[in-house]
Design goal:
Shape: globular
Number of strands: 8
Strand content: 15-25%
Order of helices and strands: HHEEEEEHEEEHHHHHHH
Oligomer: single chain
Structural class: alpha/beta
Number of helices: 10
Distance between the termini: 31 Å
């Protein structure tokens, strides 16, 4: 199913294998420092991996599930996620998840503790959200930052919420053009599954995280059960992408309700997991089951 030695980092299976384990925390720290250095007071040296499920406040509320959730030694929260498919209202969805993290970080009891930790959200996107729009001369930047600021005095910023969007389609640099760790991370997200070996340029860097990343993404290192899981995830994603491409090619607009119904029915007929369909179509599991 994949004749190169390394699995795609954009695949949920590989993403979590590379960044969401105790063994690979140093790889995660390198990733966070590369993309959030402008927002952090000091480079991260240690993080604690915590559950990726944020429980709902009541039975009527939805919980939030992140790809990866961790905190530093000061209690500041980090939400790291990989999104393959474009979604309607992406920024609103992101704010919903951040709000869940904020609510769960507040002190419980008769009085809330409003001395909240900082929330950092780092999203890797294999699409460009329509919510972003054109941003003047910076519209072609592959990484953009969103935070709270004073409208009349934009130099005054509040550090409570920090959003970083790494839009992979906007990153078009070649190996020779990579200038820093952030460039290399973006390059590997786009191309690691196309490489035959670790590029010599990376071997010359003193960043051990990259060498360990290649070992983690090496398909030959997967156990039998991991290989089966990986191949199933690849099959599901290829099937879903083919269905979405067909829908677009035949003039079905993904944003129209009738278009989504047709796509969802095709996905279910293919046996795709409801959670994956939900991620791709932005429909809830209950809505999908109702179709």
């Amino acid at each position: 199913m994949h004749n190169k030695p390394f699995a795609p980092l954009t695949l949920d299976f590989t993403f979590k294998r590379a960044f969401a384990t105790e063994k690979n925390k140093h790889i995660l720290i390198s990733l966070i420092n590369a993309f959030l250095s402008e927002k952090l007071e000091n480079p991260l040296k240690e993080v604690l991996l915590i559950t990726t499920v944020q429980p709902p406040q009541t039975e009527e509320h939805r919980g939030a599930i992140f790809d990866l959730h961790c905190e530093d030694t000061l209690g500041n929260k980090f939400i790291i996620e990989m999104q393959l498919a474009g979604q309607m209202h992406f920024i609103e969805r992101l704010l919903f998840y951040i709000s869940q993290a904020i609510v769960n970080a507040a002190g419980k009891g008769s009085e809330y503790d409003y001395s909240l930790p900082r929330i950092y959200c780092l999203s890797f996107l294999d699409f460009v959200p329509k919510d972003i729009g054109k941003i003047g001369d910076g519209s072609e930047e592959s990484v953009q930052y969103i935070s709270l600021a004073n409208d009349k005095h934009p130099d005054i910023r509040y550090k409570y919420i920090n959003i970083s969007l790494a839009m992979l389609p906007k990153f078009t640099k070649t190996i020779e053009q990579c200038e820093n760790l952030q460039d290399w991370w973006l390059y590997l997200f786009n191309h690691i599954h196309e490489l035959d070996d670790i590029p010599p340029e990376l071997l010359r860097l003193s960043e051990k995280a990259f060498q360990d990343l290649f070992e983690t993404a090496k398909i030959a290192k997967f156990t039998k059960s991991e290989l089966l899981d990986y191949e199933e995830k690849m099959k599901q994603w290829n099937d879903s992408k083919a269905i979405m491409d067909y829908a677009v090619a035949t003039g079905v607009e993904k944003g129209r309700a009738e278009g989504k119904i047709e796509v969802v029915k095709n996905m279910r007929a293919k046996g795709l997991d409801i959670a994956l369909i939900s991620e791709i179509t932005n429909l809830s599991a209950e809505e999908i089951a109702g179709l």
